[in-house]
């Protein structure tokens, strides 16, 4: 697929295929994609959708093969986008087209733009409750790219809603395939399972609570990357709680 034929939605869909539909994909998300993160997401999805798994989960080889091809196509599309990001730009309609700038002046401009991407937030604090990663960003502790890296790191390590539901005996392997096959564009797995009556609202609530409880705390990422210390972590959490109490009902 040529660069000028690729749309914003194509890239968004590729991101959702690899990272899941529970991540808010945006233009900023595309800009901060890194090869290591995309490769890790691809490996995980490839293992989940490889046709050989049909024997293990009593699934349908043809459907898994289709999903496996979709994952590979998404990976190739994002790889091409990351290898040549300067070839792409967003117009007002959101379409992506190839830029034909190859001069030293254009390269210098891209370098300047790359530095600007790492700029920190300097605006007003949002008048709403914030998650920890968001609070770090809006208070100027981290850049947007770091926040996205942390979110992707956290998402890649948490179990899927489908896996938890299967382990609890609420749905079976064939049910998972049916849900994946009938999921609407942008619809989360749990939402689709609820829509088709595989689980109740109460069960979905329990599944999401369990998923949040199992996933690693995002603060761990910032400590491991030496962005903040453990002492700073606890201090910032208290500050965030104080901020969020002002918007408890929002």
Describe, in plain words, how this protein is organized in 3D:
The chain is mostly helical and 250 residues long. The protein has a domain at 1-99: Orthogonal Bundle (Helix Hairpins), CATH 1.10.287. A two-stranded antiparallel sheet has the order 1-2. The protein has helices at 8-19, 27-31, 35-49, 54-57, 61-83, 104-117, 132-138, 144-157, 161-167, 173-182, 189-195, 201-214, 218-224, 230-245, and strands spanning 88-90, 96-98. Helix 3 packs antiparallel against helix 5 and helix 3 packs parallel to helix 8 (144-157).
Summarize the structure.
By secondary structure, the protein is mostly helical. 62% of the residues lie in helices and 2% in strands.
Broad CATH class of the domain at 1-99: Mainly Alpha
What is the topology, as strand order, of the major beta sheet?
1-2
Number of strands: 2
Separate helix tally = 14
Helix-strand sequence? HHHHHEEHHHHHHHHH
Please give the share of residues in helix.
55-70%
Q: Major β-sheet, in short?
A: 2 strands, antiparallel
Shape: globular
First and last CA, distance: 44 Å
Alpha-carbon Rg, integer? 20 Å
Summarize model confidence as the mean pLDDT: 77
Point out poorly predicted stretches: 54-58, 92-116
Range of strand content: under 5%
What would the CATH topology of the domain at 1-99 be?
A: Helix Hairpins
Oligomeric assembly: single chain
Based on the coordinates given, report the CATH architecture of the domain at 1-99: Orthogonal Bundle
| Class derived from helix and strand content | mainly alpha
């Amino acid at each position: 697929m040529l660069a000028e034929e690729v749309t914003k939605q194509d890239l968004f869909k590729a991101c959702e295929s690899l990272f899941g539909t529970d991540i808010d994909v945006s233009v900023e998300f595309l800009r901060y994609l890194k090869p290591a993160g995309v490769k890790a997401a691809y490996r995980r999805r490839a293992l989940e959708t490889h046709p050989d798994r049909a024997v293990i989960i009593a699934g349908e080889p043809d459907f898994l093969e289709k999903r496996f091809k979709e994952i590979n196509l998404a990976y190739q599309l994002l790889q091409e986008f990351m290898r040549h990001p300067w070839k792409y730009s967003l117009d007002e309609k959101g379409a992506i087209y190839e830029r034909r700038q190859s001069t030293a002046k254009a390269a210098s401009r891209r370098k300047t733009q790359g530095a600007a991407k790492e700029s920190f937030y300097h605006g007003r604090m949002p008048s709403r409750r914030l998650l920890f990663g968001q609070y770090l960003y809006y208070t100027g502790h981290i850049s947007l790219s770091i926040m996205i890296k942390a979110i992707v790191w956290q998402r890649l390590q948490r179990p899927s809603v489908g896996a938890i539901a299967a382990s609890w005996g609420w749905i079976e392997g064939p049910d998972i395939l049916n849900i994946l096959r009938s999921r609407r564009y942008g619809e989360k797995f749990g939402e689709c399972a609820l829509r088709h009556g595989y689980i109740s609202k109460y069960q979905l609530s329990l599944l999401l609570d369990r998923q949040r409880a199992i996933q690693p705390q995002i603060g761990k990422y910032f400590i491991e990357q030496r962005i903040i210390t453990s002492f700073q972590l606890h201090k910032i959490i208290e500050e965030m709680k104080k901020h969020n109490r002002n918007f408890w009902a929002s």
